[in-house]
Amino acid sequence: MSAAEVRRLVDRVTARWAPDAGGGVVWAGDHEGRRGVRLEQRGRDFTTLWLGIGERTLAVEAYVFSAPPPGEREEAFRQCLARNLSGRRLHFALDRHGDLLLVGRVPLAEVSEGELELLLGEAHEAIALVLPALIAAARGRETIP
What's the predicted TM-score (pTM) here? Predict the structure, then answer.
């Protein structure tokens, strides 16, 4: 599938998500060349999942949590790494500022409506599971043994 075909598919599928009241998507639109999908989250208002279409891959990225202060970094990183094994396409990573992100890449040839649904679900679940643990770690409480 070409980048243009993937772009049309991403636009069509994500535009359907926002009007679905039970789907947890409150906005889908374009910003700075990427498609954004805003997901409702517990613990904060929303998380925006960004989809960027390149020549060979669909890049997926979501900001999860600010760089933890020095005393809490180890626990916050442990929380994310403990969950990285369960990710199918998406994994936790650090950006250049030390902020925690959820990131992934999918070859354009593998992008389909079903794959986009799986990516949305995986992102929502991963963030929903790790966010309370990160908030607890930032407050000095461990949540994973």
Answer: 0.85
Cβ neighbours of 77 (radius 10 Å)? 17
The C-alpha atoms of residue 23 and residue 117 are separated, in whole angstroms, by: 11
Residue 78's Cβ-count burial label (10 Å; 0-12, 13-18, 19+) is middle
Give the CATH number of the domain where residue 114 resides.
Answer: 3.30.1460.10
Report if residue 145 sits inside a domain: no
State the Cα–Cα distance between residues 108 and 53, nearest whole angstrom. Answer: 8
Residue 143 lies in a domain: no
Cβ neighbours, 10 Å, residue 97: 7
Model confidence over 75-90: pLDDT tens digits?
788 888 888 888 889 9
In terms of residue numbers, what domain contains 61?
3-138
